[in-house]
Amino acid sequence: MKIAIAIIFLWIGALKFIPYEADSITPFVANSPFMSFFYNDPKDYGAHLTHEGELNPVKREWQVGNNTYGFSRGLGTLELIIGAMTLAGLWNRKVGLIGAFLAFGTPFITLSFLITTPEAWVPALGDAEHGFPYLSGAGRLVVKDVALLAGAWLVLADTARALLAERKVVVSAFQRQTI
Predict the structure, then answer these.
(1) What residue ranges do the domains of the chain occupy?
(2) DSSP code of 63?
(3) What is the pLDDT along the chain (179 residues), one digit of tens a residue?
(4) Is the Cβ–Cβ distance between 55 and 88 less than 8 Å?
(5) CA dihedral 26, 30, 36, 40 (to 10 degrees)
(6) How far is it, in rounded angstroms, from Cα 46 to Cα 119?
(7) Is the C or the N end of the chain the one with fewer CB within 10 Å?
């Protein structure tokens, strides 16, 4: 599980340095009360969105001025650190515990996008099925973080248990005693 969590964070963290990935997180960041302040013009993102693989120099220039790429590189660096620390837990449990803790915390921010990002839900464009509970492609992408949250929790709990065992501390559901 540690390796799976590490792969997710390392891969997605590395992609944050590529413009198409930075562009794709713009609606989430622009609508987030936790992140929108990193952008220079979060309210105007909708007119400057591109599709994956699309190169539009005017929209790209707007993203540069918006700090889309600067923020994405910062986020990518954090994700790379989380992935590396989680992977390092195979050899150093204390470092791995910090990585697992950070890996466990990030899905809470990501899952908040289901509340803050209109693009997470199917828009009302004439069909009867729109809004909650109809997740759009972006929403389906975000909701998968529930599995990442569960996996990170398992890694966190396993790493903490192993560290306590090294210290010869026995922890049960009902008691804690030092041997």
Answers:
(1) 2-178
(2) H
(3) 999 999 999 999 999 999 999 999 999 999 999 999 999 999 999 999 999 999 999 999 999 999 999 999 999 999 999 999 999 999 999 999 999 999 999 999 999 999 999 999 999 899 999 888 999 999 999 999 999 999 999 999 999 999 999 887 665 655 555 44
(4) no
(5) 80
(6) 10
(7) C
Give how far the C-alpha of residue 78 lies from the chain's centroid of Cα atoms, to the nearest Å: 10
Q: 58 CB contacts (<8 Å, ≥6 apart)?
A: none
CB 138 within 8 A of CB 27: yes
Tokens of 32: 């987030």
- Location of structure tokens 């396993």: 158
The amino acid at residue 150 is A
CB of 97 closer than 8 Å to CB of 89: yes
Cβ burial of 61 (10 Å; 0-12, 13-18, 19+) is exposed
